[in-house]
Write a structure and sequence with these properties.
The chain is mainly α and about 190 residues long. It contains 7 helices and no strands. The radius of gyration is 20 Å and the shape is globular.
Amino acid sequence: MNNDTLFKVLHELADMIEVFSHGICRYNYGLTRYLSPLTVFIIFISLTIIAAYSSNDTARIIVIGICAVQLLLIGSRRILTNILKTYMFIIFLAAFLGLPSIYLYTDKYSVVASMTRTIFVSLSSSTPMIVFSILVGLREIGEIISIFSRALGRAIYTFSTILLKISRLQIDILLMRFSRNIINKRGYI
């Protein structure tokens, strides 16, 4: 992986972290316009539990539909592309989790069905919390959780602050290294 590709990957990652860290509740989109963040938190935790532990796929489709409506209310292309990157990462991890089904089933149809179900359950159960963290941001989530546990709330708030600063610092370091390599080669000048 060359420096240019690594720089692009880190830049996209920092951009995604910035969206998740700050949230968009300051712009008054979606449910946060009408409800308090604590109420929205309880709603999205309920949707996550329903999607994760329901044996009915119709309930999972309804949860994804509710979250999709919230995403469509946002309407920002930058935020939606960051969400798609997050979903690609979740699909990769869910496919990795579904790999043991290759050894559990002898029929190819059962293997594909098991992996598809694992990916679908992972996507449907993570969608509400992804949408919630984009709506209110990790900092606001830290403040909401501090109502229940002050130490955990501070930890999440500190994590969101430090993660954003570290990702930007990594990009700056990589950019300095890349520019130093260009100066040393002198082939580009």
